[in-house]
Amino acid sequence: MSDDLTPADPPLADRRPHSYSYHGVTIEDPYHWLKDDSYPQVNAPDILAYLDAENAYFERMMAPRRELVETLFEEIKARQKPDDSGVPFRDGDWYYQWRFEDGGQYRIWQRWPARGAGAQDFPGADAEIILNEPELAAGQDYFRLGALSVSNRGDLLAYSTDTDGSERYRLFVKDLKTGEVLEDGIENTLGGAVWAADDSALLYVVVDENWRPYQVRRHVLGQPAEADPVVYEEQDPGFFVRLSRSASRGYILIHTAGHTSSEAYVIAADATQSKPVLVAPRRSDHEYFVDHQGDRFVIRTNDRHKNFRLATAPGDDPSEDNWVSLLEGTAQLYIRGFDAFADFIAVVERSDGLNAIRLIGRDGTTTHVELPEAACSVGLGDNAEFRTRTLRLEYSSMITPPTVFDYGVDTGELKALKVREIPSGYSKEQYVTERLTAPARDGVGIPVSLVRRKDTLADGGAPVYLYGYGAYGFAVPPSFSTSRLSLLNRGFIFAIAHIRGGDDLGYHWYEAGKLDRRVNTFNDFVDVARFLIDSGYAARGRIAIAGGSAGGELMGAAVNQAPELWGAVAAHVPFVDVLNTMLDESLPLTPTEWPEWGNPIEDKAAFELIRSYSPYDQLTAREYPPMLVTAGLNDPRVTYWEPAKYVARLRQLKTGDSPLLLKTNMGAGHGGRSGRYDSLYEVAEEYAFMLWSLGIAD
């Protein structure tokens, strides 16, 4: 590896012999050495040298574009309110709120006593800071707050922090009366904690050496954490454990799940030393979630329909034999989630791809919240109060900035509490959004959400930024982005391809893009691009595409399938070495991922299918479009060596002179840099790369 790299002389990783065989097939993998055997520690000098060389090359190639990066960053930064704050919400005797100091990177959390109607808007002199993230982040290259959990009496705060991006959080307890952080630091937690009813103990989730959340433990304040008893331990390596508090606060809930089945246990919050009670034993293809509504349990289950139903069960016996249906899912109605309150249930649902909020009263009657726009992103906000007749909602659309609403359950009034302020200015009337349907090659219609300035013509002359994800049943909502305005104001059309693999049109939409139908996801994305070209919205070679994680896998597959369509590609922490990862049982996510991708160890057909689309395995000698690839050294979800190996092989095979850049965050993980402005700077780098690649002068 040369020490005097120039922009025209990218680093070339060594090719070292390595092969393996499955199902009679031998795979050559000359870049296997980039996986450090001591991971999650990465200490191998040759690996670090290669990553450093790639980072140096990234900086050299971007150096002539730094002025553009700075211009974009200042634009994006100017759309953030320097001293922004959240809408206060009430929880018992207190109102809680986060805020940024002027120009701050991290939040400050504060509270003040609830003094009556309207008091939430005026914290007054008696507001107290309960957690100061800027102080905790001082001196750290990376900082992320895992969770906040105030005790029932309001005297104690459990919080957790991650300072390297590994998502292994350290849990702390703070005395809110004295400000003292107690000597109860607990390592390797998932992030959150739930208090016992009397605040004498808290329950938390532990991750194992492979970053799998597998145990719930109980900690008594003042006792050594090493002696904390195990409340629940998950034996199946394909299941992850989660912990939460019921809406009624009468129970602590343990949910353990893989990709296609789940199981729930309940523990009375005032008897945390008791054995967890199983709700319904796990079985294949049955997913359910449980909450408690005071006198009854509420269950979301897919036992009758893929799109789930809501059921209830008596408060003294939540077992499956006692489930009584409350709301049935249908082919058109997809029940995505719910929050339980004393007198009603708020249901998040989707019908024909459009989001909605339904309220179910105690008498079984239902109403829908009338939303300002049909195509929107809407969800339940900070609703800490169990006994309430007001519902907090979070809302946006492709042209409507994030808005916090309070909905009056009795009046039906939707009251806007806060519309995100854009200090540099924004006029909704200057933009237009559209909802299109693109025909996939198998005849299925793929929804597409578009946004552009009204003065940007849809005549094929505008560059297009096309985004996609398409995995795990995660839909990409048609929501607002302040960063995106920097592209729209430069004449871009921004598009979201709601491809199969997400659950945009229901659970069947997810199933149609997984396992043996995984290639539908990639085909849909390419077909959406071709539809945009044929419809006059885009031109071949003028489409910039982006995606991260499983969306990064999508980028790699789309590039392999149709490289001629793309003018620029951003693949963030991309899952591109799919075959090797799914063959490696030692990795934290592999066993739980088999229901999503298939098990190539035991199933030859799965082996051949994954091999046929795995971006790393399908690279060939030809021209590729300009590509920016990112990685996180401490990423536990998509390990750093996947993008590193991908770029190393691509450098060896690609022809032509299109740029190929790899940027590895050496002190971060899956989400990139952690500060409010630091993360926006990385967005500016991506946009600058795309403008440069498309030949667009700023």
List the helices and strands and how they pair.
Blueprint: E1 19-22, E2 25-28, H1 45-62, H2 66-78, E3 89-91, E4 94-99, E5 108-113, E6 128-132, H3 133-137, E7 144-150, E8 156-162, E9 169-175, E10 186-195, E11 201-207, E12 213-220, E13 230-233, E14 240-245, E15 251-257, E16 262-268, E17 277-278, E18 288-292, E19 296-301, E20 309-314, E21 324-328, E22 333-340, E23 344-351, E24 354-361, E25 366-368, E26 377-380, E27 390-396, E28 403-408, E29 414-419, E30 431-439, E31 445-453, E32 464-467, H4 485-488, E33 493-497, H5 507-511, H6 519-534, E34 543-548, H7 550-561, E35 566-572, H8 578-582, H9 590-597, H10 604-613, E36 627-632, H11 641-653, E37 660-665, H12 676-693
Parallel strand pairs: 32-33, 32-34, 34-35, 35-36, 36-37
Antiparallel strand pairs: 1-2, 3-4, 4-5, 5-6, 7-8, 8-9, 9-10, 10-11, 11-12, 12-13, 14-15, 15-16, 16-17, 18-19, 19-20, 20-21, 22-23, 23-24, 24-25, 26-27, 27-28, 28-29, 30-31, 31-33
Describe this structure in words.
The protein has 698 residues and is an alpha+beta fold. It has 3 domains: 89-332, Prolyl oligopeptidase, N-terminal domain (Methylamine Dehydrogenase, Chain H, 7 Propeller), CATH 2.130.10; 333-420; 425-681, 3-Layer(aba) Sandwich (Rossmann fold). Helix content is 18%, strand content 32%. It has 12 helices and 37 strands. Strands 30-31-33-32-34-35-36-37 form an 8-stranded mixed sheet, with helices on both faces. Strand 30 (431-439) and strand 31 (445-453) form a beta hairpin. Helix 2 crosses helix 12 and helix 6 (519-534) crosses helix 7 (550-561). The longest helix is centred in the first third of the chain and has 18 residues, at 45-62. The two termini are 35 Å apart. Mean pLDDT is 94; it is low at 1-5.
